[in-house]
Amino acid sequence: xxxxxxxxxxxxxxxxxxxxxxxxxxxxxxxxxxxxxxxxxxxxxxxxxxxxxxxxxxxxxxxxxxxxxxxxxxxxxxxxxxxxxxxxxxxxxxxxxxxxxxxxxxxxxxxxxxxxxxxxxxxxxxxxxxxxxxxxxxxxxxxxxxxxxxxxxxxxxxxxxxxxxxxxxxxxxxxxxxxxxxxxxxxxxxxxxxxxxxxxxxxxxxxxxxxxxxxxxxxxxxxxxxxxxxxxxxxxxxxxxxxxxxxxxxxxxxxxxxxxxxxxxxxxxxxxxxxxxxxxxxxxxxxxxxxxxxxxxxxxxxxxxxxxxxxx
Length: 312
Hints:
By secondary structure, the protein is of the alpha/beta class. The protein contains ten helices and eight strands. Strands 7-5-6-4-1-2-3-8 form an eight-stranded mixed sheet, sandwiched between helices. Helix 9 packs antiparallel against helix 10.
């Protein structure tokens, strides 16, 4: 039997915590009875600087439930950093961990399958979404677009996989050697290269509250994922620049022809269009290059990714 830990980052999740712990506790009891996991397995909740009663509830649940442990970060560090903090702490406590969001929209019935795959010799088991019935329409569309864009940019990842996965202690030890500040775990973990497989994950509706992953945060994660693992946007700028030179050459030929034939007409509209088109391209290019330079700036400072204030 393996010693299992689930790791769940929490930001303002007071509405769902008790319900989630009840569901996970029932699952843990069943898996223990079936001999899949040991009785000293645990569920670890990482409080990511919540502004509500999340940490207070985790404290209460820790006293009431033998499975519950807590990690309290000193401030809000963001989903990926909070998840990483839980993974790096829990790897000392368990043989394998399963990362899953605190709202349990992912199918917890996949966890026994993940454990069986782990026993078969797989170090990493990815939960791959086969249905998004619980997600809003906008989230479905943006997620599909992001995965396709990520693939086109050359980022190695598992299609339709978010952060629901099982990892062995060996894979976590390897992950700990990556010292990147701009964390994008969905792209980082596949680079470990250990034996991996997948399980089918069906997304359900939230029990209560609303998702803390706003459109802005999702776009930020997408930008971080692409710029952290691909330089294709920089080459894309170069190629578009060459295209603009070809267009400019064509316009130059047309202007020369118009002057020779005497058909030149003052084209205010075409001139303004060209100015705005080229100006927009230049500003976009500067923004993309600025994003890369900004990442270099944060990486070279080597600041810690998180600070743990308290552990239960």
